[in-house]
Amino acid sequence: xxxxxxxxxxxxxxxxxxxxxxxxxxxxxxxxxxxxxxxxxxxxxxxxxxxxxxxxxxxxxxxxxxxxxxxxxxxxxxxxxxxxxxxxxxxxxxxxxxxxxxxxxxxxxxxxxxxxxxxxxxxxxxxxxxxxxxxxxxxxxxxxxxxxxxxxxxxxxxxxxxxxxxxxxxxxxxxxxxxxxxxxxxxxxxxxxxxxxxxxxxxxxxxxxxxxxxxxxxxxxxxxxxxxxxxxxxxxxxxxxxxxxxxxxxxxxxxxxxxxxxxxxxxxxxxxxxxxxxxxxxxxxxxxxxxxxxxxxxxxxxxxxxxxxxxxxxxxxxxxxxxxxxxxxxxxxxxxxxxxxxxxxxxxxxxx
Length: 352
Known about the structure:
Elements lengths: L1 E5 L5 H4 E5 L9 E10 L2 H8 L10 E2 L4 E9 L11 E5 L16 E5 L3 E3 L6 H4 L5 H12 L7 E4 L5 H13 L2 E6 L5 H7 L3 E4 L5 H9 L6 E4 L3 H10 L5 E4 L20 H6 L3 E4 L2 H7 L2 H16 L9 E3 L4 H8 L8 E4 L10
Parallel strand pairs: 9-10, 9-12, 10-11, 12-13, 13-14, 15-16
Antiparallel strand pairs: 1-2, 1-4, 3-5, 3-7, 3-16, 5-6, 6-8
Helix pairs in contact: 4-5, 4-11, 7-8
């Protein structure tokens, strides 16, 4: 089989190689998946550079997030799934937990509790992106912060994939959103997408605008994936006893700027207003969730996507051989399109 392998930690375009490897064999409780499509996330590239929360043992197949494919074989005494079934594989490594196999290859072995059957009418593009960003949005809003109908939710990077999913989910749940963007051009786009209020840090004061929008009761729940000074302003803008969950650091493009990776919190605000700032990382959630909890959450996401509550942007397909172009697109600023490695290109099922 073909596999896209990183021979060492480094810049993806420099260390990735297209190799031929033996097709693996599933053990008990595992399935062999014939991969159809798998995305290229920015976090996948941070892993290869050695700048993420875990590091694989190199050489390593890339892609530590998700894919869609069909079950080609089952390990001995493996029940609950059948050969030929179409499934999404949640390949996010649990931390702490055992190593997993990368998805940038034609076949991969996965534990069955990480496999979610998906209907054939759901496109490859949507299915292969179902297990990371939509799940992150669901967990942040409903489990991490337990935002209730009618409450305000403040979020940064509203134009990001997770940001747009949070807007859609919040509208479905009756939650009001205050959405922070960097560019004035993005304001109307976010409003049209369903954001209740939009703050543009290019020409508006975030703290002042939150106070104007939320009034005396303020905002007590926020999510941030920018970090840096913007993350600090979000914390300061919260009402007493407010909670901020940080799940990313987009203010530093390749996680190399120490200042952008820092959130300079005001001690007086944290102490006297007893605010909470904590992190969320999907890998650690997988490390603490039971197999039953994992499948239940994934099934919730599948339902939201199939029912049209959550809309996943159409990805752009690439063959493995075009990995340099796919990596470049994954890091292009404001590209808005997720690159996908696809196999059997002639039978790739795009769509919405």
